[in-house]
Specification:
mainly alpha; 7% strand
Length: 135
């Protein structure tokens, strides 16, 4: 998902509540905060790394991997540096940070996305592990 599409999604989720800031730096700060929350709670495949020198590591990942912090986009057409499904959790978190009416709803929806995603990743990793031993 591009930054531009992400902004449209956040604006749509906030209809009837509040308005997303027009300040690009503020939006990136909110997105960075959302990324940090996601990195701490989701086993995002795109964020797995073994590079502890050049990446900002948030925590241990599965096996010998670590979870890195996603990089913030610079331009409207840049893709968000996170798994596509988790872009929706990031949007919900950003909404929760600025919503006047639906803070808990946005947090709950973000957590649902993360929990569902983590279950899929766990199943995937178990499948990979089984195939490793089948050989």
């Amino acid at each position: 998902m591009t930054l531009k599409r992400f902004k449209h999604l956040v604006n749509a989720l906030l209809i009837g509540d509040t308005v997303l800031t027009d300040n690009g730096e503020e939006l990136l700060a909110l997105l960075g905060y959302a990324f940090e929350r996601i990195s701490n709670n989701a086993d995002a495949l795109k964020l797995f790394t073994t590079d502890i020198v050049d990446e900002r590591i948030i925590r241990n990942g599965p096996g010998n991997t670590f979870i890195r912090l996603p990089r913030l986009p610079e331009y409207e057409e840049d893709e968000l540096d996170i798994d596509e499904e988790l872009c929706y959790a990031a949007a919900r978190y950003v909404c929760s940070f600025i919503s006047k009416e639906k803070v808990m709803l946005h947090i709950q929806e973000a957590e649902k996305v993360i929990n569902s995603y983590n279950q899929k990743v766990q199943a995937f990793l178990e499948n990979v592990e089984e195939k490793k031993y089948d050989k």
